[in-house]
């Protein structure tokens, strides 16, 4: 009986962790004060962003995070690279969530370009319209989406953050990654 419970627990854990966003932050072995401060801020932003993504999506991605002072804000790409620059105002949950969406395909895949051009987001559009009304549409431009792209700090709210992840999840279901 005890073995059965342990096995059941193991299987449940294995099934919930099989599709997840994971990340690691590359750190200097002997960080400067600037690096140590940045690492703390970046880790907090990533923990919050990944926790929110985990609540609303089953997306799977391994993200390699780096601190690169020369990056003006932050950037990310579909191969899973996410970089934060030295500007502390971008080391936050909103920026991390926005950049995670790029690692999942926003502005990064041929499917994104094709579906944006055709406005071919069936389930994502249905979801968006349930929030914003019958005429709402997903807008794409410059490798970004709106509404709910979290492109700027003034877009941040708990509701918008949750909707961002739900919308990205629906776009994944619609074929965002190709």
Automatic annotation (TrEMBL):
SUPFAM superfamilies with a match to the protein in the record: Metalloproteases ('zincins'), catalytic domain
Metal-binding keyword on record: no
Residue ranges of coiled coil: none
Keywords for this protein: Signal
GO molecular function, one term: metallopeptidase activity
Domain of life: Eukaryota
Protein name from the UniProt record: Ricin B lectin
Organism, as annotated: Fusarium torulosum
